Amino acid sequence: MKKQINRQGPGRGNSGRLAYSSEAVGAYYELPSAAKTLEEKLIVAALKRSSGKDGVPYRALMREAGIRNEQDFAGFIESLKDSGEITVDKDNWVKLTPYSGDVEATIVSLSQRFGFAKPRVGTEDIFIPGGALGGAFVGDTVILTDLRASDRGPSGRVKKIKAKNTSPLTGTVHLGEEGASVTPDGAIRYDFALPPGSLGGAQDGDKVLLEPVADPSGEWKNARVVNVFGTGDRARVCADAILVRYGIPTAFPEEVLREAEAISRMTLTEADYGERLDLREEPIFTIDGADSKDLDDAISVLKTADGYSLGVHIADVSHYVKPGSAIDKEAYRRGTSVYFADRVVPMLPEALSNGVCSLNAGEDKLAFSALMDFDSAGNMTDFLFRKSVIRSKVRGVYSEVNRILDGTADAAIQAKYAPVAESLCAAKELADILRRRGKERGEMNLTSDETKFVLDENGVCVDVIPRTEGEAEQLIEQLMVAANIAAARVSLEAGVPFLYRVHEKPVAGRVEELYELLDKLTVPCGELKKGDPTALDFSTVLERVRGTHRESLVNQRILRTMEKARYADRELGHFGLALGEYSHFTSPIRRYPDTAIHRVLGELAAGTPKAEIVSRYKAFMAGAAGQSTETEIRAVTGERAAEDCYMAEYMKAHLGEHHVGVISGVTPRGVFVKLDNNAEGFVSLNDFEDADFEFDGEIAHRDLRSGRVLMMGEELPIIVAGADVATGRIDFVPQQP
After folding, report:
1. Neighbours of 514 (CB within 10 A)
2. 3-state SS of the chain: helix, strand, coil percent to 5?
3. Which residues pair with residue 344 across a beta bridge?
């Protein structure tokens, strides 16, 4: 059975409810915010969510914006008053200043007859009729004017294009009797025509790099092919295009490779041994995946009279990658390593990541060690960061350690880990205590939908396996979290510039939408209905659905409710981990923020005066926070797009198979269904025989003839009907009763 794929695909959309009332949109939506800091933007956003004509009480606004320090909050309010963005009356009620001027926005989607733009401040997109686009294209920064409010949302027209988008555009070529066309990837909802002479040698179904071409009226109807990647039926080819589309750098500049080659030949000197803590006799070992080559963290744990002594030993990348070097500039530009099914795009050249920096067993290696003491209840009682020399005793593998921990290891595995057996046993005890403490404080144990893609010798996806975490993976995670907490505490105590991993609490409006949805799904969630729910409240709801067929859906919806984790140069806490301080210290080979904070911690360990550290790093950390967040988003978005293509490639070999999945999303035109292997496909309402469905606007369709209900979280038997590798789109049809 094969079903024709709709190349444009169904949109998930939303429930159709507006974020703001028409009155609020008309009065405030088009305000071009003068907010400069994140906190000022949070205050403006909170006012837009909550503000009626009388405004919001001062202290209520402080709570809604999630700002804890009253003195800081007062400063942000004064700044917004000075810029004319807000007013504060004699009773301390705060409200936005009504404004009807122009808005800076970004074009986020384009159809043949209209587009949508996202304003620089605000959450609701602005509709722009086709004749009012003024030649603007997706990604362009524009100035909008003539904003109007209606029950269907705000609308406006492009006054001018402030900055053109220069990001690459990719798509899939189609050759037919009516001529050639190309379906763009991303947020362009129609095909471009490819006039004669513009194909560039592309064949039907090829994935290409393309250049849109505007006609004299400014409309984007045509395009030309700039480069051909290859057939869009191969996920590997699509992955090539995704790297280009998202601007993920792949080739290292020659200067960087020369530096890396020189560094790779460096050997440890007498000064290295003399200046560092010598931990080579400690029972240190690594635990990673069997195919990992960049081993950047090792552990050692000793049981003490009072509790435990934990060492987390991280590859000392900052020793080799100096500030301002060609490698450093390239690592800053990349921000993070990117992981696709068939390749890794590393942040650092392999001569460093897999060579001199990697903590290979049996070799003396330079490390940065976080040395922590815990009492028997898991309280961190002391911590110290020191540059060190280590020698890992065992190259541990997750699958092997899991067998040791569950008692199924054979004699060969037991012999391999004998040199660190006591350290491993103590690590397991400490990790269990830390995991229990995390659960007690409300750490959210969100299940992962990550998938391992198995490729054959030709790079074709032949199997998909949902990733699961064993005891060994959880052990390492807990010990790394401990080191990340300690690093943040060191910086806060010293009062020096730093990068923190922050995760702010969810905004009230999203929480309300979540518990309304959970009510409809009959999932008890009374904890979320009280004012300002805690992480423990969300965790309690998650545990209620653990092991049920609604677990994945509730996990997904809670994730959507949460703010996105990001990097910041101020500590704002980590809501998901229920922590007041957190950073990223443990992966400098693959994450630039970790390398950046190693430098600051190294300065502290060396006794550098605080004033000198502040002068050297304050401005840098502010810029690195934004850059690191942007490159992380770029990497994650690209990884997900590639995963969609590999999943479609796998499912294309399984057309006609019968499965039972869970409805994961509902749109006016149909439902999304997720299978146990994490494949998600669309089921059109048109494929249900003799049915007349009515949409409730959010979570369900009800058949007016039979009474059958298609509701989120419920199971639905399906048949795999189609899979389009080029778009990563999968279609199912329902199994007929």
Report:
1. 22
2. 35, 30, 35
3. 339
- Under CATH, which architecture does the 169-231 domain have? Beta Barrel (2.40)
Of the chain, the end-to-end C-alpha distance in Å amounts to: 18
Nearest to 470 by CA among 522, 416, 408, 417: 408
Nearest in space to 427 (alpha carbons), one of 388, 472, 462, 457: 472
| Among candidate residues 488, 442, 491, 481, the one with its CA nearest the CA of residue 310 | 481
Measured distance CA(603)–CA(387) in Å, rounded: 11
The single-letter code of the amino acid at 719 is I
Pairing of strands 206-214, 169-176: antiparallel
Q: What is the largest CA-CA distance in the chain?
A: 83
Using CA atoms, how far apart are residues 489 and 510, in angstroms rounded to an integer?
Answer: 31
> Do the Cβ atoms of 582 and 441 come closer than 8 Å?
no
| Residues whose CB falls within 8 Å of the CB of residue 322, separated by 6 or more in sequence, listed in order | 328
Q: To which CATH superfamily is domain 654-734 assigned? A: Nucleic acid-binding proteins (2.40.50.140)
Give the start-to-end residue ranges of the domains of the chain: 33-96, 169-231, 254-500+577-639, 505-562, 654-734
Helices (H), 562-609: 592-605
Dihedral over Cα of 527, 529, 532, 535: its sign:
positive
Mean pLDDT of each 10-residue bin along the chain, 737 residues long? 44 29 29 58 77 74 82 86 78 71 88 90 80 93 86 86 93 93 93 94 96 88 96 97 96 97 93 94 96 93 97 97 96 97 95 93 97 97 97 97 96 97 97 95 81 94 90 96 97 96 88 89 90 90 88 86 92 93 96 97 96 95 94 96 97 97 93 95 95 90 94 94 96 92
CATH of region 33-96? 1.10.10.10
Q: Which residues contact 720 (CB under 8 A, 6 or more apart)?
A: 1, 651, 654, 655, 656, 657, 659, 681, 730, 732
Two structure tokens written together for 190: 């129609």
- H helix runs in 9-153, sequence order: 22-24, 38-50, 58-65, 70-82
CA separation for the pair 44, 97 (Å, rounded): 11
Residue 195: exposure state from Cβ atoms within 10 A (0-12, 13-18, ≥19)? middle
The CA–CA distances, whole Å, from 28 to 85, 396, 607 equal: 10, 58, 51
Asked if 621 contacts 499 with a C-beta cutoff of 8 angstroms, the reply is yes
Residue 619 Cα distances to 111, 499, 615, 622, angstroms = 41, 12, 8, 5
The C-alpha atoms of residue 222 and residue 209 are separated, in whole angstroms, by 14
Taken in order 705, 706, 707, 709, is the CA torsion positive or negative? negative
Q: How far apart, in whole angstroms, are the C-alpha atoms of residue 370 and residue 311?
A: 6
Tell me how crowded residue 511 is: count the other CB atoms within 10 A of its CB.
Answer: 22
With CA atoms as reference, report the closest residue to 100 among 9, 32, 178, 4. Answer: 32
Is the fold of 33-96 the same as that of 169-231?
no
